[in-house]
């Protein structure tokens, strides 16, 4: 039983988290129950850009490293997730933010590079960071490559509850 009342909220946000769900349809349905009619669900997340375009062997390796680094079952395609979204909502807006977030991703990757280039530093950091945090540095390092090569993207979806 949920402590959040149904038909109560005008807007719900999820940022960089829907990708972790093993059952996106269930998440989308549960949020829909909490939203008022015409309420908005805003999803900001990263995806594989186009599953119709086959990835090279190195891109497949990078994708797998990101999945492991972030503990994802699957780094899903934006169109597949949009399919789930359309089953519950109307998509008011779907915007590719990749060009806007890429400079920040590159800046973070530049800092993370120091961790990988200096094993002694990495060993010290690993004593203080939980292993999942240290593991996520792999994706932080690789994601700008994926976005700049346009096999990954970062989107905002504005979904409307049409109950």
Fold and architecture overview:
- The chain has helices at 24-34, 57-69, 78-88, 98-117, 119-128, 131-148, and strands at residues 9-15, 35-48, 90-96, 152-160.
- The chain starts with 8 loop residues before the first strand and ends with a strand.
- The chain is α+β, with helices and mostly antiparallel strands.
- The model has no long low-confidence stretch (mean pLDDT 93).
- It contains 6 helices and 4 strands.
- It has a single domain (9-160), classed as Rossmann fold, CATH 3.40.50.150.
What key attributes describe this structure?
single chain, 163 residues, alpha+beta, Rossmann fold, four-stranded mixed β-sheet, 6 helices
The secondary-structure element order is: EHEHHEHHHE
The residue ranges in which pLDDT falls below 50 over 5 or more consecutive positions are: none
Amount of beta strand: 15-25%
* N- and C-termini, Cα separation: 21 Å
Strand order of the largest sheet: 1-2-4-3
Largest sheet: 4 strands, mixed
The CATH homologous superfamily is termed Vaccinia Virus protein VP39
Domain count, please report it. Answer: 1
* CATH topology heading: Rossmann fold
Radius of gyration: 18 Å
Mean pLDDT across the residues is 93
Helix content: 40-55%
Q: Which CATH top level class fits? A: Alpha Beta
SS content category: alpha+beta
How would you sum up the global shape?
A: globular
CATH architecture: 3-Layer(aba) Sandwich
Strand tally is 4
Number of helices: 6
């Amino acid at each position: 039983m949920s402590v959040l009342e149904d038909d109560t909220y005008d807007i719900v946000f999820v940022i960089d988290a829907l990708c972790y769900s093993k059952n996106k349809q269930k998440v989308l349905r549960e949020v829909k129950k909490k939203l008022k009619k015409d309420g908005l669900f805003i999803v900001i997340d990263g995806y594989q850009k186009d599953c119709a375009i086959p990835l090279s062997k190195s891109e497949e390796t990078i994708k797998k490293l990101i999945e492991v680094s972030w503990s994802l079952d699957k780094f899903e395609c934006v169109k597949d997730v949009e399919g789930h979204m359309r089953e519950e909502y109307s998509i008011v807006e779907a915007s590719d933010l990749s060009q806007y977030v890429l400079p920040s991703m590159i800046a973070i990757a530049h800092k993370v590079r120091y961790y990988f280039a200096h094993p002694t530093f990495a060993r010290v950091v690993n004593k203080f960071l939980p292993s999942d945090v240290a593991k996520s540095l792999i994706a932080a390092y690789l994601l700008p490559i994926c976005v700049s090569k346009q096999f990954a993207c970062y989107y905002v979806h504005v979904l409307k509850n049409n109950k």
